Amino acid sequence: MLRSLVATALSYRLLVLILAAATAGLGVWAFVNLPVDAYPNIAQTQVKLILKAPGMTPEEVESRVITPIETEMLGIPNQAILRSSAKYAIADITIDFTDGTDIYWARQQVAERLAGVTGDLPAAVTGGLAPISTPLSDVYMFTIEGPLSLQQKRELLDWTIRPALRTVPGVADVNALGGYVRTFEVRPDPVALASAKLSISDLRTAIESGNRNDGAGRLTDGEESLIVRAVGAIRSVEDLQTLVIASRDGRIVRLGDVATVGTGSLTRYGAVTRGGKAEAVEGLVIALRGADARAVVDGVRTRLAGLQHSLPAGTQIHVFYDRSDLIGRAVGTVEEALLEATVLVVVLLILFLGDWRAATIVAATLPMAALITFLFMRGMGLSANLMSLGGLAIAIGMLVDGAVVVVENVVERLSHAQGEDTPRLNHVFRATSEVIVPVSAGIVIIALVFLPLLSLQGLEGKLFAPVALTIVFALAGSLLLALTLVPVLASFSLRSGHHGEPWIMRQIGPRYQALLDAAFAHKKLVYGLSATGLVLAGLAYGAAGKTFMPTMDEGSVIVQLTKLPSISLDQSVAGDMAVQRALRTVPEVEDVIARVGSDEIGLDPMGPNETDSFVQLKPRSQWRGDKDFVVGEMRKALDGLPGIQSSFTQPIEMRVSEMLTGARGDLAVKIFGPDTATLAELAGRIQHILSGIHGSSEVLTVANDNVDYLQLDIDRAAAGRFGMPVDQLQDALRGQVEGVRSGVVAEGQKRIPIVIRGDDGIRSDPARFADLQLRTPDGTLARVSDMARVERTQGPVKLDHENGSRFALVQAFVSGRDLVGYVDEAKAQVTAKVRLPAGYSIVWGGQFENQQRASARLMMVVPVALVLIFLVLLAALRSLRAALLILSNIPFAMVGGLISLWLSGEYLSVPASVGFIALLGIAVLNGLVLVAYFRQLRADGVGMAETVRLGAQRRLRPVLMTAGITAFGLVPLLFASGPGSEIQRPLAIVVIGGLITSTLLTLVLLPILFERFGESAGEAANA
Amino acid sequence: MPDLLFTLHCATRDTELLVDAIRAVSPTPIHVRGEAVRGRDFGDAGTAERVSGELKRSTLELIVSADAVPDLLRTVKDARRDLPVRWRTTPLLDHGRIA
């Protein structure tokens, strides 16, 4: 089949050229139109429910909101995990589905079940399914700057900018943070209300029923008809003031008589501050899952530019995070590496082939294979990102292997063809046919070694599947080209006639000959050195640190701040500004924008004591050191601030850890158990143990944190005597503090809520609150303190559940040490020092969990790949001994990889494992090249001693070319410094280091081993 | 005029065309045989045949009188063939048909 493919290609050369040009054109089109993002889509199918329960404590949220929903959701099919978290006024429920579940199906399931349970939830609970977003969704962040007040800025964002941006294709939502949401505020005067014999619920009913425009049908007026419209909607503060709420004995009571009416703002759950100076209003554009991030950002930018002229004078939009910067730099890093690798590969080709025509033909396959890969990527819906383009960069040296072998053989054959009258096409065909089996077996072997990556699960699977897929696509493309375009181009441009040995081979050849002779003379020394290498590799494996994934430098820094849990929002904002002023003393910091508490949609529901500070850094050229230095300086700057704990992360990294474990941190220890107090005590002990372990940068737990409560224990008998039902008492209290919504005022497009709530004096004075007089349904007045015992207590900040069970979380950030070593030590110490009561258990998670899963999966899949490679070798060579001999080359390839990894100080991570996998393929290929030729020489009747020497010498060039080109193709990745280079560097180090030892051992040890073990006694006798 | 065996070697893809052309000028039956030619004379070969080094040929044979040969050759020459053909005539000593 492959032969007839080559024959057909050579028979229709013009057609092949036209097809190649068309493919190249389509490939360029595919590349230009590929969705571009910094990272692959790493989100699992996740549905988030965010419910707001105004004024409710975490315990109420847990028992009245989360528990009924959890009970309903636990039965949904394909569910992987159900996590929930109850905080003050917020219920956050996350349902992860198994990979491959359709997100729209999953959302429908959740929505159906939620609809079923909504009736059981308290009436004030609002919210529902969060937008379809991923950790990569925060693509664009801006603040509104100018002379407007915070309330006006917020109104501009809510009612002008947000609706405009939501129409941009690919935008899931625009989150509005900070500032004040304007309301019409009704503040009842308790005394006036009591004397008018009215309660807050009377006010609410009156406002709701007195605020409506409606139609009444049509009237006929002669020949015309009139549409009847009854106008009664509230449009202004005056309308509200004059609203009649009661009419008794011919006297009316207006709202203005019993309450102060004015403009106010909704109770704030969060705020945004900027630059240590003042509060700000922030907009955050959330991209839809699967949207082309670059296109979304472009659309947002265009829309904002269009809006700019309609903004009030002096108002500007200040952008402080733009994902396209990261995308540009990440993709730019890989594209640069690709370009440099291509140049290096072409130079090597010219050096090794000594024929610029041959080198040009081979070099032409590089862009062609890349363009074919882009076509495949587009077909498979892969985006161009760090990982997929990185796959191409890794493969670049391997892409030319097939073409090199074909061109080399054609050059060889044509050089002997002078004087023969056989057509050139026939020479090219025969030369290509001869190498079909080794070329396709080689490429299949390399593709096979990458297939295990497709079986990885979780985050590593989502990151590395695109790498494996692009490599496999690129290899398939290169094989197709090697069998079609390469022979066609060779038939056009290669000349017949004798070609001299290239200069580089004239230099290396005699030296290799001498080395080989010395090796055969001192076999024991060679064996000894190889064994030493293996031992050293074993030691290096033990010494090298192990981690999941190197941290990718996104170029941005987020400082997460945690303050005392009882802190008020205003104090928290003041603390944030102090932090910002401290951070701005670091010269590299340009600006700091921080958000505290919960956002408007509730996608990131933090407490008022939690802050994410986004640090804008100056251009790298103005830095005094690297990023670690800058972070160190920031850490130092924050050292002196009391009551504020800080931890450093990056925008995407933060979202990824939240998505994976629901927690931030390298290590997340979850303690499951029923009782909150016991959980808090255990969490405290574990936190203490972890803090003492070398490598802990920050260890946090909120399990021991308590907030202060003003608890009202309702005395049923007392409340009953006043005729006050418990629920009405609770509603009245909420109305005084949190406020009760009572309809909206429509101002054009805007919807301004009407809120009834207590006086500021009551809200800021617990004693006055206890003295508050409420009107009971019976018409009597009763003091709060008469109906309930008022006392200060403490309660939890947050209650977490996983699959319906309570747990306490301890998070640890690790720096300057490998994660696995840290976790091992932590586990040992915790097991020794903490005795768990019955019914309690500990689960170790976080980044470390991924590393464990990835290595377990690779342990299982790599042997399977080895068996497959063995079968391919067996099919290609038809000799068990030869196949085993080639496989024995693998450990020696690992030697260089492990030693170079250890010397460079990089950790053994998933990318490094991918490097080992690539190395395995190349080592096997080199072994195959050599052993196949040995066997051919033996079949031709050459003696064993001569076979190994002659064969090794003749195959020196292909072995050196394959190894050299692959290694040099990776050199640009070693020196790349942009985002994403952290992932590719360990891989490049492993492959380059491994290729050095593997090539050396293939060329020196393998001939010796083949002479000793290559043939059975029977085979040797037959030869 | 003596009878001759007229033999024509043509490319496989020209076979049908030549058979039709010859039948138009000669009533005698034409024997068609497929052949593979391996050799070094690639002057007559098409591109695909040069690639594989193997010429796919058909041999057409018919018995004609000597004076009909020029007509046949003209017909073959005028036919819209793709590739060159080779021909020869061989004198027939005798021939017949047995029922």
TrEMBL record, chain A:
<feature type="transmembrane region" description="Helical">
    <location>
        <begin position="884"/>
        <end position="904"/>
    </location>
</feature>
<dbReference type="InterPro" id="IPR001036">
    <property type="entry name" value="Acrflvin-R"/>
</dbReference>
<dbReference type="GO" id="GO:0042910">
    <property type="term" value="F:xenobiotic transmembrane transporter activity"/>
</dbReference>
<feature type="transmembrane region" description="Helical">
    <location>
        <begin position="525"/>
        <end position="544"/>
    </location>
</feature>
<dbReference type="GO" id="GO:0005886">
    <property type="term" value="C:plasma membrane"/>
</dbReference>
<feature type="transmembrane region" description="Helical">
    <location>
        <begin position="955"/>
        <end position="975"/>
    </location>
</feature>
<feature type="transmembrane region" description="Helical">
    <location>
        <begin position="987"/>
        <end position="1010"/>
    </location>
</feature>
<keyword id="KW-1133">Transmembrane helix</keyword>
<feature type="transmembrane region" description="Helical">
    <location>
        <begin position="361"/>
        <end position="380"/>
    </location>
</feature>
<feature type="transmembrane region" description="Helical">
    <location>
        <begin position="463"/>
        <end position="490"/>
    </location>
</feature>
<feature type="transmembrane region" description="Helical">
    <location>
        <begin position="428"/>
        <end position="451"/>
    </location>
</feature>
<dbReference type="GO" id="GO:0004601">
    <property type="term" value="F:peroxidase activity"/>
</dbReference>
<keyword id="KW-0812">Transmembrane</keyword>
<comment type="similarity">
    <text>Belongs to the resistance-nodulation-cell division (RND) (TC 2.A.6) family.</text>
</comment>
<feature type="transmembrane region" description="Helical">
    <location>
        <begin position="910"/>
        <end position="934"/>
    </location>
</feature>
<keyword id="KW-0560">Oxidoreductase</keyword>
<dbReference type="InterPro" id="IPR004763">
    <property type="entry name" value="CusA-like"/>
</dbReference>
<dbReference type="InterPro" id="IPR027463">
    <property type="entry name" value="AcrB_DN_DC_subdom"/>
</dbReference>
<feature type="transmembrane region" description="Helical">
    <location>
        <begin position="386"/>
        <end position="407"/>
    </location>
</feature>
<feature type="transmembrane region" description="Helical">
    <location>
        <begin position="858"/>
        <end position="877"/>
    </location>
</feature>
<feature type="transmembrane region" description="Helical">
    <location>
        <begin position="337"/>
        <end position="354"/>
    </location>
</feature>
<keyword id="KW-1003">Cell membrane</keyword>
From TrEMBL, chain B:
<dbReference type="InterPro" id="IPR015867">
    <property type="entry name" value="N-reg_PII/ATP_PRibTrfase_C"/>
</dbReference>
<dbReference type="InterPro" id="IPR021634">
    <property type="entry name" value="DUF3240"/>
</dbReference>
<protein>
    <recommendedName>
        <fullName>DUF3240 domain-containing protein</fullName>
    </recommendedName>
</protein>
<dbReference type="Pfam" id="PF11582">
    <property type="entry name" value="DUF3240"/>
</dbReference>
